[in-house]
Amino acid sequence: MTAQALSATRSARRRRWSAGLALGVVAVLAAACGNGGTGTTAQNDFQPVQQTGGSLTVWVDSTRLPAAQLYQKQHPATKLDIVTYDGDANGSNYLQTKVSLFNRTRGGWPDVVFSTQNNEVSWAVQAGFTAPLDKGLIPQTTLSGWASGANDPCTVDGKLYCLRNDLAQTVLWYNASLMRQWNYQVPKTWEEYQALGQRVATEHPGYLVGTAGDNFTPEIYLWAGKCGANQITGPKAVKVDTTSPACTRMAALLDTLVKNGTMSTSSVFSSDFDKNSGDKILMLPGPSWFGGSIFQESLKTPKGQIGVAPMPQWAGETAPSVGNVGGGTWLLSAHSANLKDATDFLTWVTTADDYQGQVAPGYPANTNAAKSWLAKQSASGYYAGDVAAPLQAAASQVWPGWGYGQFSQEAIWAATVTPGQTAGKTIVSLLPDWQKAITDYARSNGYEVSQ
Amino acid sequence: MSTAGAPARRRTFWPGRAGHLFVAAYVVLLIAFGVVPTVYAVYFAFTDAGDRFTGLSNFFDAASDFRYLSAIGHVALYLLFWLLSLVVFVVGLALLLHRLRSRTAGTALRFLYYIPGALAGAASVMVWLFMLDPSVSPVSFLLRAFGFDTFGQVVAPGNLPVLFTMIAFWTGAGGWIVVMYGALNNISPDLLEAARIDGAGAWQTARRIQIPLLRKWIVYMVILAFAGGTQLFVEPQLLSQASVGVAGRDYSLNQLSYDFAFQNNNVNTAAAISVELLVIGVVVAGIFVTRSGFFDAD
After folding, report:
1. What's the pTM value of the predicted model, to 2 decimals?
2. Nearest CA of chain A to the CA of B130: how many Å?
3. Which chain A residues contact residue B50 at CB under 8 A?
4. Best of A88, A103, A272 to mutate (most B CBs within 10 Å, chain B)
5. Mean pLDDT, to the nearest integer, of A169-182?
6. pLDDT tens digit string along A89-98?
7. What share of chain B is helix, strand, coil (3-state, %, to 5)?
8. A56-167+326-379: CATH topology
9. Quick check: A419 and B247 CB within 8 A?
């Protein structure tokens, strides 16, 4: 080593030493602040913060933006600060991410939040974010106005932590004009449904009887088929069985129809589906919000064509069952300094006829609003035939064996089954992988998993 | 009264103060957003939620997660593609640019290379998401020629390392091409002329003179690109959102860290992964610096 290099090393060492000292000082400082980091205590007794009033911060997705705007228009005295976000769609976890940051900085929480997901309370209660609604904030007479079971996803340890916005019970949407024109009968059983799919494949190739390309495909078909992939048995316990006969039978039906081309593998929201399949839908099993969101808004199917029938059942089935795709929830922040206005907004947005009955795209979870919503749908003349009876019947037939855990079933299906489908594998062959993925994700979220 | 002496005295009072002021702004930001968070992360990595020292338990937690090994594999494969393409194409394009006789064409090309890098990172990734969707892409004919008819087929798991490399190259390489071009301009014209007189062609000049003289710049680029590459996040995260979760979720170590922090509310394990990335980056930089004689005086 040359003298020059030696002195360079020495001075580098000196520099490193002083840098080490500086780091040490910072470490001590950081350690001192470190205690402030874990502001997430389980919330047993709700203690409101000091009520100082002021403006309400409301987070909504773009579909619910008109609700907040309408409230603002009707209640000019309350100042709303409306923020749009992705609504946590597809299990994006945006809300949870933000709340966990707000918990660290101890500020910034929105007063009221809309989420498209109905499993938010599974983390939000633990994070101390949601206020219990049935302990003095909203009267029981109001709460009893919800459809039976609608607020189950909002209930933790017997307390209600959110309000369901809409129900997302699945039904069979179909094109009544085409059915009549081709002289087909709307299938009542899954066997008839499959047989019709096979007829369509030969008689009218290119037309669809459904799509299996969405993240919520399992919620439409496998949930309705009583497949026990997501049996939440306790606050942190889940039973996962994706290879039972109930699952394989429905998966095989999907595989058959995918193979003959009558079941699409594109998402109803994809540009691809809109462009190539939008006007080729004979039937489309899906949630109640398909009517407004998919047929009216995104596909712009003309008036008078789309009808609603009950979800098919397996032949010999005595207890009809349907699936459920979302159905958003409204959460009230436990940190709100204006609980009075926040509660008023929450009550209005979930029950008011002006919004839920007249404007909302989905089937309202509040029974009175639902009646008015159904009347409006019928009066609009958009649908062929009666939509009220099948939707109302389906509302109480959602199979209760599928729960609302903290991990997103939609995200798991998307990452596990969809790429396999794209690569040409059958859903039946992917069921064990699906099982493993659910198990892994459930465990990483702290769930006890039984098979 | 003489005013001429005063500024001279002040100048000696704080020599180089302009330089210090320029650096000060950077140092303050470096401490606030670089050093303090790093130290904070190290602190988190060795403690639990109750601020108790836990040794390596957070590191074990991270390593035993079912996504950990696959994330390492993904990042390693991506790094291989990314670093190779960066070294080969950046040096190649810079050499071509340097040989260009036309000044205006050279300036125009340099500007062109640099544009994507000037767009904010996330925005340029968004551009790619459009490019890769056959139903909206302006180059859908190319995608179809490769047999991709839907976005789902384009983002099949096997294609991801190549896609991320393409995106990262397009958004990040332009700046490096300009840097390399600058370095090439620093090579004495006498040296290049001597080579030409000795009968060296373009290829031999590049191989025997220009690339050896660029070595430090290449090492510098590789060190920074390696550190950046191990922190792969924006590309898979945005792709995951664009493909509604079909591709790119839990793809990289940084995403796993993000999931730990914000989905499982486990900042300590998240910090453990960040510290691992820091250690890997420092070790690899150390190897490159010592093996290449990076700090040797010329």
Report:
1. 0.81
2. 11
3. 38
4. A272
5. 96
6. 876 788 998 9
7. 75, 0, 25
8. D-Maltodextrin-Binding Protein; domain 2 (3.40.190)
9. yes
